[in-house]
Every structure is written in C-alpha cells, then in structure tokens.
Design brief:
481 residues; C8orf32 fold; six-stranded mixed β-sheet
Length: 481
C-alpha cells in the first residue's frame, strides 16, 4: 500500500526566500567586519626601547713571529655565500679547520673577485689546535663590477707553531695560502618598490600575539643562555647574540600541509620551525632581553625586526655596534616609519643580524645601505609583538563572516534548487483537475497530489497504480472569532 503523506500548503519558495535574506545579511555583516576600523593597541612611545651602544672585546694579539717557513699546512675551508649584488656586495660565512698535526694561528682571511681589484680582508686572530675549527659567522664582501656568474677565490694568512715559536707560513712567494676558485651568481639592484605598509592588521595581530606568553620560562631561559657574558643592560650586541642563537639552534622546517604558527617555546623545544616561528621566537627573546621587536609579513615570508631608535644618530649607533660585534663592515637593512627605525633580523635571509630578509633587494635609489625593497610584494604587514592579543569578538572577526557567507551561500543554492524542483512536480489533483496548493492535500510517493476530499473515492493512485491507504482525518481548523 502507498501511504498518503499529509502536506500543509507551505511553499518551498518561502523557505528559499528566508534563507536568501539571511545570506544577504551575512554578506553585509562580513563587509562591515572587513571594512570597519578595529581598534588594535600596538606599541606606544613608552613601549619602544632602543638598544644601548656596544663595542666588542679586542681581538687577541698576533704572536711574535720568529721567522718564515715555506710549507702548506693541512687546512680546509667550508664556505657559504649569501645573496650578492653588483656594486653592493653581500656576506659570506666560513669555517676554517686545522687538519694537520701542528698548532696554527689564523691571522686573517681574504676574499677576492677573480679578474678584478675588488677584495676584502677579515681579521680572525684565533689559535687553532689540531682537529679544531674556527667559524667566521659573517664576513662582508663588496660587489663585483658585473652581474651574472662570477668567480671568486678565498685565501688565509696563518702562523704555524714549531719548537722555536711561531713562524709565518709562506707559499707561492707570499704569506697568503690560496684556495681553489668558486663561482656564484651576482644579481643587480632594483629601484625602490611601490609597496605599502599596513600596520597591525587585526587578524595577523591577534594570530601572532595570541601565541606569546611572556611568563613562559622556556624562552626566558634560552634568552639568558644566548646573551650570557655580554654584561647587564640591553644593547645591540645582545640583539646580535639572540639572532646568532636562533640561527644555529633552530632548523628551518616547512609545514607539511597548511601554514601553522607555533608558540615560541614550541619552536625551541622542537628545535625546528618556519619563518613565522623564527620571527616570533626572536621577537620574544628580544623582549626578554629588554628590547622591542615586531614581525613583518611579505608575500610568502615573515621576518622579525628590532627597534633601534627614532633618530638617525641612534640608527648609526646601532650599525656601529653590529659591525663591531661581527668584526666586519657588514651591510645592514632597516625600515623606517612613524615609530622609528627597525633593523631586520632574518636568519633565513642573511648570515648576520641586520642583513637582507628573504625576498628583500637593496634599493639602487639611495646611497645608504640601510634601505631595501621587495619586488614581488604589494603589501607589507607589520605586527607589533606586544604579547597581548586584540581579543576580537566573534562578530568582529572577518574570518567568521567569510565562513558564514560561504556556508549560507551553499545552503541558499541548495534550497533554491529544492524549491525549483517543487515547481516541476504534478501540482493538480488527478481527480478534480484543480490546483492543490491553496488547500491541504495528500501526496503519493510518486509525487502525485490529491485533495483530501478526492482521495477517499480512489483506492489506487491514478499516476502509478499503487494502492492508497485511507486518508487520515483533516487537521483541526481554528475557530473563527
């Protein structure tokens, strides 16, 4: 038997209209949440702490030389070369290993572009026992005259210890020990890019600062370890030490699927993270050291920057301190806005604090080296790392509205299709051939409808031939008043 199903005269189009109204309202709410000026409290003047000056301890004196010895000590170099630009230069990192049986004293290392007069020398002044390695974390190099593939060569000047004392090692007619030629790619500088700075976007501000807990002890402990031996007070040397600590401690690890941001303590415990994790860790450690830091977000990348002052004098003081820390005239980069100067801190883009960030290019529009641009970025977002989230309400969060609009849009389309399908069903009673919508009706499972007054006279559906059960009684009607 085909049971009759009671249908009140409710039209599906009314349901579709109601859902459409909610869909339109969600679009309006989303636009308001996106366009409205949400109050985000970033840094104020009292939050900005410029680092003090710093001067590195003097290098060890070169030992007295007893004479020359013509030999070739067993020394090896491991060289890493960063971004290099024509007429601007870059930096390199190298380690020097003593593979021989005699003690050495490394006086200095040299770098030169083959076929040009461009060369740089870096003072090392360190003893190197057999089996030991000394690292030059950052050595400034000037740029060659041309871009493209360019050859370069390294050389070192060393002393060797013998029974009578220290002797100058000579090889090939002078006291430089030359190493084989290598090749690297040299880029050209670019005009200043036309990107805009967007400070403290509410979404990024909440996302970053919601991960910061200045009371968590793990990052504080790491900060104390990083700046140990650098005295009291906050100075630019501690910012460099924090940069170096993160650089050698954290291994870059990309997120396998979606881009996730982790708490700084998680990054430390895992000894791994991506660019946002590096940035938040550096910013938190700088806060513990007494400084102020923020995060910059570019197209596909993020990096930290450290406040170094609101005057050019403070900026230059910081630059002097950084170069003293590394013992090299390294190239430095900083952004300037209404709050002051912010020096880059991106271990993924440079070997030293203040160097180029990933995606940054030195600008050819200025004689200063403290200027960079981004070729592939239209908007650069700055996020002050205050440790306090803006606490956006759900209705003020654009992400909530985007989700709601997408969800209601899918529901609205489904309901509209459902209502449209209703129009194609048989709408007239097969017994009396009158419309079934204005009054109560019964519907067979095949979709055919009958008036309640017509249905009892029929024992079979006229459309599909299925037996029909007796119709249930009419619903009660409300008394008229």
């Amino acid at each position: 038997m085909c049971p009759a199903v009671f249908h009140p005269p409710m039209k599906r189009t009314a349901v579709a209209a109601a859902v459409t109204v909610f869909f339109i309202l969600s679009i309006v709410g989303g636009l308001f949440a996106i366009l409205a000026e949400v109050e985000v409290e970033g840094f104020v003047a009292s939050d900005l702490h410029a680092p003090g000056s710093f001067t590195a301890s003097p290098l060890e004196d070169v030992p007295a030389v007893q004479g020359d010895v013509q030999t070739t000590p067993d020394v090896s170099l491991t060289i890493s070369i960063g971004q290099v630009y024509k007429d601007y230069g870059g930096s390199i990192r190298l380690s020097i290993a003593n593979n021989g049986s005699r003690q050495l004293f490394v006086v200095e290392v040299g770098f030169e572009w083959v076929g040009s007069l461009v060369e740089n020398v870096h003072q090392v002044h360190e003893e190197l026992h057999p089996g030991e390695t000394v690292e030059v974390r950052a050595m400034d190099i000037d740029g060659p005259y041309y871009s493209g593939e360019q050859d370069y060569r390294m050389k070192i000047r060393v002393l060797q210890h013998r029974a009578q004392g220290w002797f100058r090692v000579t090889s090939g007619g002078d006291d430089w020990l030359d190493f084989p030629t290598h090749t690297t790619s040299v880029s050209s500088m670019t005009p200043a890019g036309a990107f805009t700075l967007d400070r403290n976007n509410p979404h990024y501000f909440d996302k970053a600062n919601g991960l910061i807990d200045y009371d968590e002890p793990t990052v504080l402990q790491a900060t104390n370890e990083a700046v140990a031996g650098l005295g009291s007070g906050y100075h630019i040397g501690k910012a460099c030490a924090i940069f170096d600590y993160v650089d050698r401690t954290i291994v870059y690890t990309d997120d396998p699927t979606e881009d996730l941001w982790y708490e700084p303590e998680v990054c430390l415990l895992n000894r791994a993270g991506d660019c946002e994790d590096y940035s938040l860790l550096i910013a938190t450690m700088v806060h513990h050291a007494g400084g102020t830091a923020r995060m910059y977000l570019t197209e596909g990348h993020a990096f930290a920057a450290i406040f170094v002052g609101n005057s050019t004098a403070e900026l230059q003081q910081a630059a002097v301190g950084v170069r003293s820390y590394y013992g090299s005239d390294v190239k430095l980069m900083a952004f300037h806005d209404e709050t002051g100067y912010w020096m880059f801190a991106d271990p993924l883009g440079s070997f030293h604090f203040g160097g180029l960030a990933v995606g940054a290019v030195p600008s050819a529009d200025t004689a200063l080296d403290l200027n960079a641009t981004f070729e592939d970025t239209a908007n650069v977002y700055t996020v002050d790392i205050t440790g306090v989230a803006a606490s956006l309400t759900l209705l003020g969060n654009p992400i909530f509205w985007i989700f709601l609009v997408i969800t209601l849009g899918i529901v609205d389309i489904s309901v509209i299709l459902w209502a449209a399908a209703d129009k194609h069903k048989p709408q007239r009673c097969l017994v009396c051939d009158n419309d079934t919508h204005p009054e109560h009706h019964y519907e067979c499972k095949c979709g055919q409808r009958y008036h309640h007054t017509c249905l009892p006279s029929q024992s079979f559906c006229l459309n599909c031939g299925t037996p029909i059960e007796a119709a249930p009684p009419l619903p009660p009607t409300r008394p008229m008043h």
